[in-house]
Amino acid sequence: MLTNDEFVDVVDAVELLLLELKTLRAGRCRFRITHRFQVLSSGCGPGEEVAIAHLMDRGKEFYLRLSGTLLLLFDYLARHSHMPMSASQIVAGMRADPFYQKHASAAPCVRQSLKISRSSIKVYIDRLRKALGQAFRDARIPLDPRAVLVSEVTASNQVAYRLKTATVDWIHVKHPGPG
Question: Does residue 49 contact residue 103 with C-beta atoms inside 8 Å?
Fold first, then answer.
């Protein structure tokens, strides 16, 4: 027989599964991006490191196999999912944002510089889609990565990219501080 606490845990788990099923039926997926070395008391701040990204499904995490630059691009697209952006807009936005310019500067031994160009965005988008596809296969989710990370052609035949059918949560791990 279940105790009240165990019953509440079961109900919470069932509610989570029902929410995830509803999200999947709507063609949406959920991701979690983890930032390390948090220096501000809340939110994302310059100096943090985009450490890892996961696809979340049925209470499980499925690792997105992304290099440092791809993690930064995925994080940027997730933060700006409300608007499609051209390669030039993505690069300009990332170069102007202190979060990406000072990426991982709070990490004790990690030094990463942002090396991204307009001409490389198309290649990075393709690599992001491959990583999304692998995570969807690992999770056995029948989603097309092109339906999640979309390319939209503008009136002037310029391509704009957007993370369209995704919900993203950010986790922040605080900097441990000295000794």
Answer: yes
> Nearest CA to 54 among 44, 43, 66, 45?
66
pLDDT along the chain (179 residues), means of 10: 68 68 64 85 75 92 94 95 95 91 71 79 97 96 93 90 91 68
Query: For the whole model, what pTM was predicted?
Result: 0.80
- The residue range of the domain holding 119 is 30-174
- C-alpha dist (Å) from residue 177 to 36, 51, 107: 12, 18, 10
Angle between helices 87-96 and 121-139 (to 10 degrees): 90
Q: Which of 175, 174, 146, 162 is nearest to 79 (CA)?
A: 162
Coil vs helix vs strand at 46? coil
> What is the domain-level CATH number for residue 106?
1.10.10.10
Determine which helix (DSSP H) or strand (DSSP E) holds 52, and give its type and residue range. Answer: strand 49-57
> How many Å separate Cα 107 from the centre of its chain?
20
- Expressed in angstroms, the distance from the first to the final Cα of the chain is 48
Per the domain annotation, does 6 fall within a domain? no
Q: Give the model's pLDDT for residue 51.
A: 87
Number of neighbours of residue 112 by Cβ within 10 angstroms: 15
Does residue 22 lie within any of the structural domains?
A: no
CA–CA distance, 105 with 96 (Å, rounded to integer): 16
